[in-house]
Every structure is written in C-alpha cells, then in structure tokens.
Design brief:
heterodimer, A: mainly beta, 12 strands, B: mainly beta, globular
Chain lengths: 115, 115
C-alpha cells in the first residue's frame, strides 16, 4: 500500500516569506498527486493536482508544486505567503491504473503566517 | 459551499450505542467517499461508492461499520456498538467521473465523540 510523508508538522512564517512544504510518497508505480488545503473553519478543498505531463503544476492562489519522480516527491511552493494562507495543507496520492480509488493522505502541515 | 452536506455536524454518544451519519453529495456526482480523520492525522479512507455500488472498503473498516447508498444519491454510515476509539471527524466527499485524478469535493464533516 502507498504511504505519504509530510516532513513538517507546523511551519511558522512571516508574510512575504517563501514557502516550501515537503511531501514524499512510497509507491513505485504511476501515481496521481494532490495537495488539499483546509482553511480554519472550512472544509478540505483542492489546491492543485498532478497526473501527467509537465511536472511543474500551478494551482490556485499562486501555489505550485513540482513532481520529481526520481525522488518520489511532490513539494508545494509559494514565493511569497500571505496571512490568508494560514491553513493546514495535506499531500495525497492515488495509484493510477490500479483498481483502487483510495486516496492516501499525509498527516498534514499546519502553516501559520504572521502578519 | 462545496455542495456536499453532512448531518449532523456533531454527535455525542455513549459507548455501546449505535450512530448513523448522513451525507448528501453534489447532485450529479457518481462517486461518494467516506473518510475518517483524527487529531493530528490526515483523512483516512474508509469506503467508496460508484452510484449505488460499494466498490471498495478499507481493511481498517471493522464489521461494526456499514455504509449504504441505496439510490445512488445520499449515503449513510452507521457505526454499531460504538467504542471510544471511534471518536473522530467523519468526512464525506463526492466526485464526478471515472478517472483516478478526479477532484474530490468534501463536506464539513460529522464530529463524533464517544464517551
């Protein structure tokens, strides 16, 4: 079964700082990768996803993520964070082409942005 | 508002009681998923439906848990003889399509507390 590791439990940044959240997955086959975000008091929502093509994917609110197959990684980045980016971020993976539609999530990284 | 509704928002029950949660997905979505999330963890897959058919269940889902989606619309998740370890946020999500990279739309969840 696949697993997802998120390296940081809690990240604290000042506004305008750059962000990189690490994500590694364990499955060696073809995968689809996702970042979901949960803002305080809100439901989980999709930030961006990768399934094929250009390994650099762009999502909403200026976020991007790079899929590096050789490193089994899908790190999330943003050049300049805002206070409104304060949220919990979850990396997730699903095996492509397998019979399963089970999305496996990491434990999440809580991001706090200080104004 | 994602359009996925869950009821109730909160449920407090005594150990040994049965509880039932309801999920109303976005109306045209053919897939419906149940996840469970505990503090400090990411969502954990429980089961999913394609229309009314339950196609996959997690190995972690004990036989005290049962889910239905009788007409391919709303779904219910029942937990029999609840245990304190069942305390968690139960999340429902829905999606449209048949590919592995579909976006999941999550509800706000039902928070279960077993005393």
């Amino acid at each position: 079964a696949q697993s997802v590791s998120q390296h940081n439990h809690h990240v604290i940044l000042s506004e305008a700082a750059s962000l990189e959240l690490g994500c590694n997955y364990s499955y060696g086959g073809t995968v689809n990768l996702f970042w979901y975000v949960q803002y305080p008091g809100q439901h989980l929502q999709l930030l961006l996803k990768y399934f094929s093509g250009d390994p650099l994917v762009k999502g909403i609110k200026g976020f991007e993520a790079e899929f590096i197959k050789s490193k089994f990684s899908f790190n999330l980045r943003k050049p300049s964070v805002q206070w409104s980016d304060t949220a919990e971020y979850f990396c997730a993976v699903i095996r492509s082409g397998a019979g399963s539609y089970q999305l496996t999530f990491g434990k999440g990284t809580k991001l706090s942005v200080i104004p | 508002d994602t359009g996925v509704s869950q009821d109730p928002r909160h449920k407090i029950t005594k150990r040994g009681q049965n509880v039932t949660f309801r999920c109303d997905p976005i109306s045209e979505h053919n897939r419906l998923y149940w996840y469970r999330q505990t503090l400090g963890q990411g969502p954990e897959f429980l089961t999913y439906f394609q229309n009314e058919a339950q196609l996959e269940k997690s190995r972690l889902l004990s036989d005290r848990f049962s889910a239905e989606r009788p007409k391919g619309s709303f779904s219910t998740l029942e937990i029999q003889r609840t245990e304190q370890g069942d305390s968690a946020m139960y999340l429902c999500a829905s999606s449209l399509g048949n590919r592995h990279n579909e976006k999941l739309f999550f509800g706000s969840g039902t928070q279960l507390s077993v005393l």
